[in-house]
Inverse folding.
């Protein structure tokens, strides 16, 4: 009996000791986690000074998305003053001119918006003006959440030069559902269907296609959609590696189709910006517009709901293709507020940041782990299409061609919209390709 009592006593003591050590271990782990959280909070609170963020986001949807990112930053770093250095103008045409002047003068903003692809690499990458941000991807564990193809358009060699905040789709036809229903029109998926619908709308006194090309990039935007819809994704991509000629019969067909579409746009197109043209669709004075899905953010900022007041389809001929561009932010060398900028880039590339920004902006996250419940019916469809469609780069938004080539295309387009000379445009497009390939 005494031996039994002794073993029971030893067993109770052993269990008690194990429990004590286990509790001590748990408390140790909890203390370590609390200490890490406190250190992170202290690091966030420690940042001060300013952060100058240069962008061109001013229109409805764009401004709200940007402000959502600002709110996250201010909550984490309340002692940092955000300088919102915004230059108005769609696609960044005005902003890029201002930025080029500042960069050449050695006065970079702390961070600036730049399109992934050639606009990023061929301009600021080759000039060695940016600090690689590989270390941020490593610290944040982002290589698990960004596809290799995404990384490649952000990189020059092994150097990742910017952090993406989104992906936009540019080949979308937006339309006023009430106007289409009132005129018994089916959404056009081919160019023949487009022109048939346009004739019906024009006869009813409604502008078929809203265009605002006070910035010529919007005309280039429509034209790249016509190119894709005419050539298909493989030949469209071939335009940028020299395997498809810009003066070929198919490209001339696309140029002619674009010129024919100009007969159905609003007469004041040269005096309007893209969002003013989109407002015509909201008002019902125009039925359609071809624009990227930042237009969805604009429509929602005006109180409209996708699939209720406005509808959407891939631009004619482009079903199964996703013409993509990505807004990114970078870390210029020798900026005044480097640590503040790194904190901004971490928010831009985070799940939290992208899920706050994109539902308002009208874009989809560049990450592969979004909370789909936060995205509306259009954006959920765009996320699915991005995973299954042929991906093609945008000319108008810096993904497909260098900035010098893009400027040449803009200049040719300015003449084409005015004189509608198809043959002259084809020759000029080919000459620009020969010079820039």
């Amino acid at each position: 009996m005494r031996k039994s009592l002794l073993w029971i006593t030893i067993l109770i003591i052993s269990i008690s000791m194990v429990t004590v050590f286990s509790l001590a271990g748990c408390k140790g782990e909890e203390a370590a986690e609390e200490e890490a959280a406190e250190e992170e909070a202290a690091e966030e609170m420690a940042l001060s000074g300013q952060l100058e963020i240069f962008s061109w986001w001013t229109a409805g949807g764009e401004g709200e998305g940007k402000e959502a990112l600002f709110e996250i930053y201010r909550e984490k770093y309340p002692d940092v003053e955000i300088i919102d250095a915004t230059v108005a103008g769609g696609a960044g045409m005005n902003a890029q001119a201002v930025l080029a002047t500042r960069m050449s003068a050695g006065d970079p903003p702390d961070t600036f918006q730049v399109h992934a692809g050639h606009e990023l690499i061929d301009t600021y990458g080759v000039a060695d003006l940016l600090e690689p941000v590989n270390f941020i991807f490593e610290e944040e564990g982002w290589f698990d959440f960004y596809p290799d193809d995404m990384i490649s358009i952000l990189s020059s060699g092994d150097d990742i030069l910017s952090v993406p905040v989104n992906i936009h789709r540019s080949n979308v036809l937006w339309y006023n559902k009430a106007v289409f229903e009132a005129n018994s029109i089916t959404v056009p998926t081919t160019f023949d269907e487009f022109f048939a619908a346009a004739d019906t709308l024009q006869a009813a006194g409604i502008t078929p296609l809203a265009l605002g090309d006070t910035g010529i990039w919007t005309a280039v935007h429509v034209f790249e959609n016509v190119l894709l819809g005419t050539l298909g994704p493989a030949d469209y991509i071939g335009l940028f590696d020299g395997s498809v000629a810009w003066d070929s019969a198919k490209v001339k067909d696309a140029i002619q189709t674009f010129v024919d579409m100009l007969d159905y746009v609003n007469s004041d197109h040269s005096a309007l910006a893209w969002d003013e043209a989109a407002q015509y669709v909201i008002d019902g004075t125009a039925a359609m517009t071809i624009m990227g899905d930042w237009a969805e953010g604009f429509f929602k900022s005006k109180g409209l709901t996708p699939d209720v007041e406005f509808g959407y389809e891939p631009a004619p001929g482009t079903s199964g293709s996703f013409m993509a561009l990505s807004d990114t932010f970078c870390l210029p060398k020798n900026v005044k507020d480097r640590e503040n900028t790194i904190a901004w880039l971490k928010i831009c590339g985070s799940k939290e940041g992208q899920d706050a920004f994109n539902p308002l902006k009208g874009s989809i996250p560049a990450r592969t782990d979004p909370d789909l419940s936060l995205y509306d019916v259009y954006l959920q469809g765009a996320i699915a299409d991005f995973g299954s469609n042929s991906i093609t780069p945008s000319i108008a938004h810096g993904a497909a061609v260098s900035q010098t080539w893009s400027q040449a295309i803009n200049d040719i387009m300015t003449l084409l919209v005015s004189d509608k000379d198809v043959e002259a445009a084809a020759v000029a497009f080919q000459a620009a390709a020969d010079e820039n390939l």
In short: The two ends are 96 Å apart (CA to CA). The longest helix spans residues 2-46. The chain has a mean pLDDT of 91.
